[in-house]
Design goal:
- This protein is mostly beta strands and 282 residues long.
- The protein contains four helices and 25 strands.
- It has three domains: 77 residues, Roll (SH3 type barrels); 57 residues, SH3 type barrels (Roll); 118 residues, endopeptidase fold (from Nostoc punctiforme) (Alpha-Beta Complex), CATH 3.90.1720.10.
- The strands form eight sheets. The chain has a six-stranded antiparallel beta sheet with strand order 20-25-21-22-23-24. A five-stranded antiparallel beta sheet has the order 8-7-6-3-9, with no helix packed on it.
Amino acid sequence: MTDRRLLAFSGRVAVEALRGKVEAEDFVVPKRMALVATHWLHESPDGGIDRELLFGDAFDVIERRGDWSFGRSAKDGYCGWVETAWLGPWVAPTHRIGVRTTWGYSGSDFKLPRILPLHMTSGVCVEAEQDGWTRLAAQGGSLWVPSDHVTDAALDMVTAARAFLGTPYVWAGNSGFGIDCSGLVQVAMNAAGWACPGDSDLQESMEGEALEDSEALEAGDLIFWKGHVAIATGPETMIHANAHHMMVVEEAITPAIVRIAANGGGPVTSRLRPERKPTVSN
């Protein structure tokens, strides 16, 4: 495997499973940690961003170098660098955030200070419930969120995607504050309990049923262009985060295909009914 996004090798240190496959100074068993807040995964220390990781996401640390940690995101195998200050001890989540975005408060009262934003599929550990509020474990203490914003059940994929309607388009984003096309697909599939890679080219390579142009689309099918992906919400409509509208929209498929081609995005490259594989425990 040579795709650096999926290669658990920092250039100096690699995971033990790569012994004999790459030339590294050291081979290690990664140490599992977790994101203590939503933050970016970088291609290199101080380098460009690749994807956004969410609060509670498991991150397997392979090497620490200065203020940065190289590792692998457990939910999709994406490798890169995170500022070590944004990592904390791993605690297996009991629930997930089930709404686009909520806030963690300092107590069970919405008039108290907001502490931390939490986004859909963020893994959380429930400690207690009280009067419609749920207390979550967090770095250095606890957070309180409305109980209706926490779930231990899978969501419908299209319903999860529609929760992001109007969310700003942010390249590499995976959160309710900003999301891109592949981030929307990943969050929606993860919310439904299904595994999904982070980038659209990796998503296009997922296992599943390749669909002919003559086959009717079903809700949850994926439509791909070079560097872009959308989710079918029915035979004639789709939802996607896109740079034309600079937000998440739901629209008719046929005129969108024409517009994307006219704007230089090229034709549809494939259509896929992805295999529903359970997510990796996060």
